[in-house]
TrEMBL record:
Taxonomy, superkingdom: Bacteria
Gene Ontology molecular function: any one: gluconate transmembrane transporter activity
Topology in the lipid bilayer: Multi-pass membrane protein
Claim: Membrane is one of the keywords in the record: yes
UniProt keyword terms in alphabetical order: Cell membrane, Membrane, Transmembrane, Transmembrane helix, Transport
Identification of the protein by name: Gluconate:H+ symporter
Compartment(s): Cell membrane
Lineage: Bacteria, Pseudomonadati, Bacteroidota, Cytophagia, Cytophagales
Organism name: Chryseosolibacter histidini
Transmembrane regions listed in the UniProt entry: 27-46, 58-76, 96-129, 136-154, 174-194, 229-256, 276-297, 318-336, 356-385, 397-420, 432-456
Cellular component annotations (GO), alphabetically ordered: plasma membrane
Keyword Acetylation recorded: no
Family, as annotated: Belongs to the GntP permease family.
Amino acid sequence: MSILIVLLCIAFLVVLITVFKINPFLAFLVVSILTGFLLDIEVAKLTTSVQKGIGDMLGSLVIVIVSGAMLGKLVAESGAAQRIASGMMYLFGSRYIHWALMITGFVIGIPLFYNVGFVLVVPLIFSVAYRYKFPVVYIAVPMLAALSVTHGFLPPHPSPYALVGIFKADVGKTLLYGTMIAIPTVILAGPVFARTLKRIDSPLPKTFQPNAVADDKLPGLANSILSSLLPVILIALTSSGIVTRIAHFFLTIPFLNIGNTLRRFLGNDFEVTISAFLGDPVIVLLFSLAVATYSLGLRSGMNMKKIMDIYSDAVKDIAMVLLIMSGAGALKQILIDSGVSNDIATLLGGIDAHPLVLGWLMACVIRVCVGSATVAGLTAAGIMAPLIPSMNVDPNLMVLSIGAGSLMFSHVNDTGFWLFKEYFNLGIKDTIRSWSLMETIVAIVGLFGVLTLNAFL
């Protein structure tokens, strides 16, 4: 009976968001409280569970997501993203321009949130289409596929980073595995699939082409790439153990005597402690933001007030994302406190399917019904997380499996669908044929990538 209640409540969540157009944060709160009542959680403890779920979710996310949003906004406003794009186009030339756009989308997509990235790259796509006379959808899909994959697969993007916390995964391993899966996924969903879209005719509207920053005012290419990718570089270095070895080298130099001093405060494993501290995503993002504030801001002639205004705007852009995540955290806590996870575990134990496939499928269904990749990923994770200990599955791969499923078949209930349709002036049929199928390819290839890695790990 408890499983039926959960399914009905999730269905009610879908109805509230899709039919009645209720804000997802409010819908999550209403459904969380309703689910708690129906699952016989004591009234006195019900609000406590909701508050704990919200607090636990935001406590581990808010610094990373806000810092990441600020970094991404600065990358966009400083012209660093434009510099990366122009550099890639110069390197690849017109013949391989769709590959240049794919790589540019991947690099830009790592620090930028999807909606910000989308609006940023669309003028670039139009300008390339004008210059090289290519069908605009043909060159748009590779770049947008890369943006979509980074949004769904790679921390520190909100959804994958939240899933890392929910499943107690390792952010470095998730980033490494996610990159390994993302590369073939982007290639198949981008340049390869785009070859089938050359006949889609889309006029080039001038409305969505803001003035580009003059080349002489753009930051340098090396500076732009390093500042944008610094969080990924630092996480990779700490996860690989390089930072630990460097710390060990410097801290064991006899005449400096630093090691003995730190050993008294941090213990014998102080190198590991320092590496863990430096590799924490919060420290990585704050350090990267500090570097970018100088390298892309102050060094480019911006004053501190303008930089802080950019950061304030960035927080406004992702405020609702944080609220949606907190609402999903409330529902997750209700499912945990009610003990319904044990009933779900019993049910899933009788299904002859791999746990990674189950997580992916659950995210797919919610995504298609609700339209939001973030809502789909977090809702599926809230159901699957309590079952991980009994499933003998790598939590890092579960993050990626659900992330892939959360991108399945974007259609009319997804804002990304309408962004693509309206910006490129397409009909519903052509939007489904291009955008929706591209997202479906990302989801399916992503699952195959996860299962392939699982076979070798």
